[in-house]
Amino acid sequence: MNVDEENEGDRTKEKKRKNQANEKKTSTKKIQQARHETATSAAAIAAVTSSSASSSTATATANVLSTPSPTPGAPPISRWRQRERTKTTAVALALCLNIGVDPPDVLRISPCARLECWVDPMSMAPPKALETVGKNLQAQYERWQPRARYRSHLDPTLDDVRKLASSSRRAARSERVLFHYNGHGVPRPTANGEVWVFNKSYTQYIPLSVYDLQVTTET
User: Fold this and answer.
1) In degrees to the nearest 10, what's the CA dihedral of 133, 175, 160, 199?
2) Residue-wise pLDDT tens digits, 131-147
3) Which of 16, 57, 65, 172 is buried most deeply by CB count within 10 Å?
4) For residues 204 and 184, what is the distance between their CA atoms, to the nearest angstrom?
């Protein structure tokens, strides 16, 4: 074999090696491109699935909130939210505590709950304790509604409560009246829907109709 034939053989081998290397590079690029396309497709499918699931969940939630499930034979349920917003502009506080005198139908056990607005009424004189409880109660409401007009009566009579309710309604005009009644110092409410207040000399308990109170405050 002469020199020319040897050189020709070397060139042929070198050409084969280059072709094999090029084919390997091309194959690697195709594999990488296929992997990229597969990952992109998977991500797109996941995004569509997630979007569809979110849309379905939102639609289902909206349907649950807006369309209550009716009971067979029951009348349709109306929306409970008020369309017109009202403000609480008047707050009436009526505290019937009569500190130091337990109601006749109440049997206190020991120990028992005694705090009124985080105040122990037995830790001070009854008039001072009643005044402190009233101030603390008003301060707690003022944290929630500082702009409202507050009126309070401590151990009120029947006339006091009626005047309190009517004056609160006039002050609120067409807005909401909040009426807070504490009857821890009087007998329990009656079966006829009555709560108790005091007479002028604090010797008797006087019944007060809750319905009459509601009519007076127009709540």
Assistant:
1) -80
2) 999 999 999 999 999 99
3) 172
4) 15
